[in-house]
Amino acid sequence: MEQINVTQAVRQFSDLLNRVFYQGASFELERGNKVIARLCPVSAPRTVAVRELNRLFAELPGFNEDAERFAQDIDAIRKAALPERDPWA
Questions:
Q1: CA gap 23, 44 in Å, rounded
Q2: How many domains are there within the chain?
Q3: What is the pTM of this model?
Q4: Which of 5, 60, 61, 82 is the most buried (most CB within 10 A)?
Q5: 34-39 and 2-5: which strand pairing?
Q6: pLDDT of the chain along its 89 residues, tens only?
Q7: Is position 44 within any domain?
């Protein structure tokens, strides 16, 4: 946990909040070489266990007939695309 002077914290408050929110950083705020407060995330971000992934994927909506049409569109685009020209040939 990084320690920072209260005066510095006031001047950099927006940056500190962004670091707390986006990076999960925590800060101890000091006044007169004494820690008087902490600035930290409310809670740790929720993680998903690998064993839960199959359940989560099973709950996603399926493509049904759209998947086949999508695959056909991709094949048509690949066939219509010109092959890359070898610049060394």
A1: 11
A2: 2
A3: 0.47
A4: 5
A5: unpaired
A6: 899 999 999 999 999 999 999 998 999 999 999 999 999 998 766 777 888 888 888 888 777 778 888 888 889 988 888 777 777 76
A7: no
